[in-house]
Design a protein that fits this description.
Elements lengths: L2 H7 E4 L2 E4 L16 E2 L5 E5 L2 E4 H10 L6 E4 L12 E4 L1 H6 L14 E4 L4 E8 L2 E8 L2 H23 L4 H5 L1
Antiparallel strand pairs: 1-2, 3-4, 4-5, 6-7, 8-9, 9-10
Helix pairs in contact: 1-2
Length: 171
């Protein structure tokens, strides 16, 4: 699939793709939205015999290239495929833009109840390495430690990636 072929069949408006030239045997789709909502909240559909996630096609539609790895929905709404809500990310970056999983002992990401210590534990995984941030009496304190460490580690990684020191960055 390339951008020219995509734009021949679909158009983009209001954060979604719409059929302008559906396959001959599906002409009833003309003017209708592309794809269906999946059980996990994404929009997925078929085009020229292949299945695609709408957000990946939206990226191709706007930039003319496929995303290199993952596309992150900035606002965490999986069916909001407005181009302003999409950004390229690697697995680690994509995993950080999430909320606490259902069934977790805490409502905060990176925080859990440690039965052995009878306290809240805060941990952060960056590039596959798990960082222990401490044990806390209050859940909110553990969440604050996670938020602060995440901001610091993300900032440090961004600074290192651009080859500048912290001193140069703050001047």
């Amino acid at each position: 699939m390339d951008q020219v072929t995509l734009k021949k069949h679909l158009t983009y408006k209001e954060g979604h793709l719409w059929w302008v030239q559906p396959p001959k045997f599906l002409t009833y789709l003309q003017g209708k939205s592309f794809g269906q909502l999946t059980d996990d909240g994404y929009i997925r559909g078929s085009l020229l015999g292949n299945r695609y996630f709408e957000h990946r096609l939206v990226w191709l539609y706007h930039y003319g290239v496929w995303p290199r790895e993952f596309l992150d929905h900035i606002n965490r709404t999986r069916n909001d495929n407005s181009i302003e809500n999409l950004r390229e990310a690697n697995r680690s970056q994509n995993g950080h833009n999430t909320t606490s999983k259902p069934g977790s002992s805490s409502k905060y990401l990176g925080v859990g109840w440690h039965k052995g210590n009878n306290k809240w534990i805060s941990r952060l995984r960056i590039n596959g390495k798990l960082h222990h941030l401490g044990y806390f009496g209050k859940e909110s304190d553990a969440a604050d430690a996670y938020t602060l460490a995440k901001a610091r580690m993300t900032c440090d990684a961004a600074i290192a990636a651009h080859g500048i020191t912290l001193t140069e960055w703050t001047e």
